[in-house]
Predict the structure of Transcriptional regulator MntR.
Amino acid sequence: MTYSEENYIKAIYHLSLFQKKGVNTNAIAKMIETKASSVTDMIKKLAEKGLVEYQKYQGVTLTETGLYSAKMIVRKHRLWEVFLVEKLDFSWDEVHDVAEELEHIKSEKLINKLDAFLGFPTEDPHGDPIPNAKGEIKKIDKKLLSDLKIGQRSICVGVKDTSSEFLKYLDKQHIALGSNFEIIEKESFDASLIVLVNENEMNISNKIASNLYVKTI
């Protein structure tokens, strides 16, 4: 596959995680930041390679081959993110763009050795699961902080919004993977929260709470 084809496959994969039916071509165009007509042309190419199937009014779905290929691209991206953070001291808001380039490296041997070198991590620096070499993904038991009730305690296991802006905001608030939360109060008007974060009381907006994945403890 070309870099562009790999980017399309990955985009379809990510969009399919949130849709039961096929992925809409307009949604793909928005994620790829291109024209709908360009998406249509690419879908035809991917279908010819046996990577996707397209049905009018039902959208695009990955074939078994396409799904595995997409998972391998995601695997490379997230392993490189782990490497950049753990071995090269990148911060978690810096790694995405670099990993976007590194994910296109073709050497399967290199990626498998990288996986072993890192100790076979199951999650990336943002808490997202890393597919193994077979394409298997360990399910992470998580929910949004905004869904918890007063008195519930939890630990941060991931972020929904992986944008650099959001991650920098979390750094300023000293919130990271592993941070402990306890819901003290929930405002009925705007669903904002008063939370103990690592024993420090903090006001957290619903927007922030709706982008933090946690595991109850």
Observations:
- Residues 64-88 form the longest helix (25 residues).
- The mean pLDDT is 94.
